[in-house]
Each structure stands twice: as structure tokens, then as C-alpha cells.
Specification:
alpha+beta; Alpha-Beta Plaits; 126 residues; globular
């Protein structure tokens, strides 16, 4: 059997602030993510906003493709790092997407959001 990789698309939405601010925030997030033992962190090339995107001409924040390697064991760690990063900024959100499954993380932790994240991790954590 070959090693299965789990690609995770991460899309940062800083809200307002312009392209320079979004890029600066994305670079800070990349720095923190690079401390994890990820297979790779790659930028998604810019293109038109994805279908169904809530963006209506606002800055398309950066998108990253993260390789979790052969297991989903890093997914809860990745989610925790992203949530902590968002809490310290007190604004914005990050969408994590695996295949067609997607969850939006914010700096505000509530019980419903936490249960949703736990379910997302359970679905992809094997």
C-alpha cells in the first residue's frame, strides 16, 4: 500500500484591511504552521473566487494547500494552532477544507462551533 496523503485547503479571511494586510497575516500564519510536521505548505495560485464563495470582489485572502502526510493525526493539532492564532488576532476566520467537506474556524469559541470542529476532525482524523 502506498502512503495516503491528506491535502487540506486553508483559506484565510481577514475581513477588511486590504491586500497588504491579508498577505502579512497569511505570512504570520504560515510561520506558525511551519512549526508543525506537515508534509508541505504551498500557496494556491490566484484565480477567480471559488463557486459559492461569499466573496463579492473583496480581497481574496490567500489560500494554502497543506499536506498532513499519511494520517489525519495532525488535523486536531492543525485546527488548534489555527484557532489559537485567530483568538490572538480577535478577527477574521479560516476555512479548512478536505475534499468537499469544509468547516469555518473563528477566534470565538462556542460550544456549537467546538462540536462541529470535533465532528470534522473525527471524519478526517483516521
Amino acid at each position: 500500500m502506498g502512503t495516503r496523503t491528506i491535502p487540506v485547503v486553508l483559506v484565510l479571511d481577514t475581513g477588511d484591511g486590504g491586500e497588504d494586510y491579508a498577505e502579512e497575516q497569511l505570512q504570520q500564519l504560515i510561520t506558525e504552521l511551519s512549526e508543525l510536521d506537515l508534509g508541505s505548505i504551498d500557496r494556491v495560485t490566484e484565480g477567480p473566487p471559488p463557486p459559492g464563495s461569499r466573496s463579492t470582489g473583496a480581497v481574496q485572502l490567500g489560500a494554502l494547500i497543506l499536506d498532513l502526510g499519511g494520517s489525519g493525526a495532525l488535523l486536531p493539532v492543525l485546527a488548534a494552532v489555527v484557532q489559537d492564532w485567530l483568538k490572538r488576532r480577535r478577527s477574521g476566520s479560516v476555512r479548512l477544507k478536505i475534499g468537499e467537506d469544509e468547516i469555518e474556524l473563528t477566534g470565538v469559541s462556542d460550544e456549537v462551533g467546538q462540536r462541529g470542529l470535533e465532528e470534522f476532525v473525527r471524519r478526517h482524523g483516521d
